[in-house]
Amino acid sequence: MQSFRAEAGFLASLDKACRDFMNRNKATGTSSSKSPELLAKHADGMLRKSNKTTEEAGLEDALNQIMIVFKYIEDKDVFQKFYSKMLARRLVHFTSASDDAEASMISKLKEACGFEYTNKLQRMFTDMGLSKELNDSFKESQQNNETSSDLDFYVLVLANGFWPLTGPSTEFIIPTELLEMYKRFERYYQGKHSGRKLNWLWQLSKNDVKTNYLSQKLIFQTSTYQTSVLLQFNSSESLTEEDLAKGTGLNEATLKPILGLFVKLKVMLREGDAYSLNKDFKSKKMRINLNLQTKTEQKTESSEVMKTVDEDRKMLLQATIVRIMKARKQLRHAQLIRRLCSKCNPASNPRFPTSRRPSIICWTRSTSSA
């Protein structure tokens, strides 16, 4: 390799070979979107608290190696979508190895792809800082409240449009144990920001639930939906799925996986249609994470991300075509494609249609309605 460093032709061929291998290999098959997904997952693993490469220097080296591979990834917009989703999860669940490492990675991506590529990632960090200030202020305001609560209540207020998060897919009845603090925070926030509306993403929130029914004192780490299900057993020994749905407001698609997981982990027992808490449950750990993502949920998330990528690419192409045709009025198909290639951000790696008719229909329809 040292002998060929000055050979531009050799280095160009080596780069092309690396790019082909990185994007099309045994692990990815023919899909060029698999490599960016796998690289984003690897980066997620390196940036989590559970990562064994905890020393700052070692982690920085690992991030540099990720960027070397990133250089050869074709579908950089796919990487951005998956990375954004995983960054959001790390921040929301406070599982980042360090803020410095997260900031370093965003800086590297910005240097490689520009400000627009990392704008939303940077805004996520801003929201986390603002949320901390808001919670500190809220807690201070509650210190003089005569009906103070022992509940440790922390709210992340995130700007809509910058986070890759979706609203709840089910109705939800807020548990009595959380309702008072929920109302207090709503009043406090509206007092500071009149006219703003908070949309609560209960499916992303989590709780620590202390058990009082076991021989050992355990703490279950749960989602708020899971917490709501467990709290139903404060007033009844045995409940059916219908009873739990009525008490929590959760739909069948949300409730069934929760019950299935609880039974699988032996936190609950099922006899016929009835569910009950397993009072013989034991664990070597005092804190037990029940808020686990299933393989089905992981596959669904992956397909949803790719759907978003396709929609973004389509919108990008249509908007670019409109701008070009407004300026040029008339172009041949080949000329339009060349201009599209020069105008579109390389990070988005848009797929241009090979047929002329869809392109003509696309810009004709777009320009006529603009």
UniProtKB/TrEMBL annotation:
<dbReference type="InterPro" id="IPR059120">
    <property type="entry name" value="Cullin-like_AB"/>
</dbReference>
<dbReference type="InterPro" id="IPR036388">
    <property type="entry name" value="WH-like_DNA-bd_sf"/>
</dbReference>
<dbReference type="InterPro" id="IPR016158">
    <property type="entry name" value="Cullin_homology"/>
</dbReference>
<dbReference type="InterPro" id="IPR001373">
    <property type="entry name" value="Cullin_N"/>
</dbReference>
<dbReference type="GO" id="GO:0031625">
    <property type="term" value="F:ubiquitin protein ligase binding"/>
</dbReference>
<dbReference type="InterPro" id="IPR036390">
    <property type="entry name" value="WH_DNA-bd_sf"/>
</dbReference>
<dbReference type="InterPro" id="IPR036317">
    <property type="entry name" value="Cullin_homology_sf"/>
</dbReference>
<dbReference type="Pfam" id="PF26557">
    <property type="entry name" value="Cullin_AB"/>
</dbReference>
<protein>
    <recommendedName>
        <fullName>Cullin family profile domain-containing protein</fullName>
    </recommendedName>
</protein>
<comment type="similarity">
    <text>Belongs to the cullin family.</text>
</comment>
<dbReference type="Pfam" id="PF00888">
    <property type="entry name" value="Cullin"/>
</dbReference>
<comment type="pathway">
    <text>Protein modification; protein ubiquitination.</text>
</comment>
<dbReference type="GO" id="GO:0006511">
    <property type="term" value="P:ubiquitin-dependent protein catabolic process"/>
</dbReference>
<feature type="domain" description="Cullin family profile">
    <location>
        <begin position="34"/>
        <end position="263"/>
    </location>
</feature>
<dbReference type="Pfam" id="PF10557">
    <property type="entry name" value="Cullin_Nedd8"/>
</dbReference>
<dbReference type="InterPro" id="IPR045093">
    <property type="entry name" value="Cullin"/>
</dbReference>
<dbReference type="InterPro" id="IPR019559">
    <property type="entry name" value="Cullin_neddylation_domain"/>
</dbReference>
